[in-house]
Amino acid sequence: MFPVKGFLEIICFEITSAETALQSVADRIVFAAERSWGGITPNIDEFRYLKNKYTKPIYVQISPQSEAFLCSDAEFHQMKSDLLDFKKSGADGFVFGILNRGNQIDSERNQELISLTKPLPCTFSNAADHTPDLKETVEQLVRLGFHGVITSGGKKDVRKSKTELKDLIELYSHRINILINGNISSEIIAEIKNETGARFFHSTAIPPYESYVNEDEIKKMKMQL
After folding, report:
1. Cα(129)–Cα(127) distance, integer angstroms
2. What is the pTM of this model?
3. Which residues constitute the signal peptide according to the record (predicted)?
4. What is the sign of the dihedral through the CA atoms of 81, 105, 177 and 31?
5. What's 197's domain CATH number?
6. Which of 21, 84, 114, 119 has the most CB atoms within 10 Å of its CB?
7. CB atoms near residue 103 (< 10 Å)
8. CA nearest to 193, candidates 214, 222, 155
9. How far apart are CA 8 and CA 152, in angstroms?
């Protein structure tokens, strides 16, 4: 569960980037859609194509087409249906995160999704950064059975939350994989690793002013881990 060397996960919002990342030195990808929305459930036929062609692990992001991390009853029903379809199609794991209107973890709904995914692992999305107490949130995610959580320490720019991330890693990294995001790039990944003790990273690997995953950027990040 906890590698000696750093682990690099690339989130891909369309199939071209997914193929680039699956052929790269990345350890795993998260397949999603609609980068401008922060990622929603991708096209299942594209996922099946990727699973048939590549052996690298592919997690699938399951998210409703709605704002924030809330979902209606209809959207939650769709999430469950989508999750089961992707599970049958060979997903290696899932990424999702549901909050209630107080920006607290919606324990009941998240637990129901985890139960449907078993025995596959689940990562809680960056919805964690929108909760009022990140440490309490991570503790709750551990209890619910999540294998990982994506976080920038509660701030958009990970460089502004290195102290918070170091504390989280010291407290919880033996119980849950803490995947660091927040504009992670080859320019800062070594700094974040060295100052927080992080071993798991989650990145788009899309350089500024570009639209697709860049294989050279993945190589540069992986070399520093």
Report:
1. 5
2. 0.95
3. none
4. positive
5. 3.20.20.380
6. 21
7. 14
8. 222
9. 15
Range of the domain at 85: 7-223
Q: How many CA atoms lie within 13 A of 146 on its CB side?
A: 28
Strand partners, 151: 180
Backbone angles phi, psi at 108, to 5 degrees: -65, -45
Greatest Cα pair distance, the chain, in angstroms, is: 44
Q: What SS3 state is found at 37?
A: helix
Q: Give the total number of structural domains in the chain.
A: 1
CA count, 13 A, side-chain hemisphere, 91? 31
